Amino acid sequence: MARGGARAAGGRPGWVWALPGGPGCAGHARRVIADALASLDVPRDVVGDAKLMVSELATNAHQHAGDHGPHELWLYFGEGGAGEVRCAVFDALADAALPGYSWTSGDCGRGLSIVRELSEGRWGMVRALSRLGPPVRGKAVWFAVPVHGPVALPTSGP
């Protein structure tokens, strides 16, 4: 299901996976990112944090942009390439803004605060085009995962 050599945000090489619609989206994203990061020798505790963060982003895409596909999962190098890879969830709800943060705003709205905390503030949103199939305008919400030592994203999926 991975598309090797695909271009992720900013034209960087990386991996791209289609995310299924529906409530299985987050579970699928967790499994895929865990396998991909493990293949890059990312430490298990960092993989655990990444699984939680991608689950939050995939859940948001399903809940708030469920009718605005395609939904994709991207893994690519961050700014400067060294020291981090970025994981992003793309959806085609291009005009949506990121909601504000609140730890006390009721039963929802905490997911992006979790992403902010676990990523140590290395997260954000970019306007982008989808990478699988015909280009579709949308947004990608991303977070950074620290990596140690040289890492090369392969030209084919994990």
UniProtKB/TrEMBL annotation:
Source organism's superkingdom?
Bacteria
State the Gene3D superfamilies in the record. Histidine kinase-like ATPase, C-terminal domain
Q: Does the keyword ATP-binding apply?
A: yes
Which intervals hold domain Histidine kinase/HSP90-like ATPase?
28-119
Q: Its Gene Ontology molecular function terms?
A: ATP binding
Sorted alphabetically, which keywords does the UniProt record give? ATP-binding, Kinase, Nucleotide-binding, Serine/threonine-protein kinase, Transferase
Q: Do you know which SUPFAM superfamilies this protein is assigned to? A: ATPase domain of HSP90 chaperone/DNA topoisomerase II/histidine kinase
Give TM regions: none
Q: Which PANTHER family match?
A: ANTI-SIGMA-F FACTOR RSBW, ANTI-SIGMA-F FACTOR RSBW-RELATED
Q: What is this protein called?
A: ATP-binding protein
Organism equals Actinomadura fibrosa
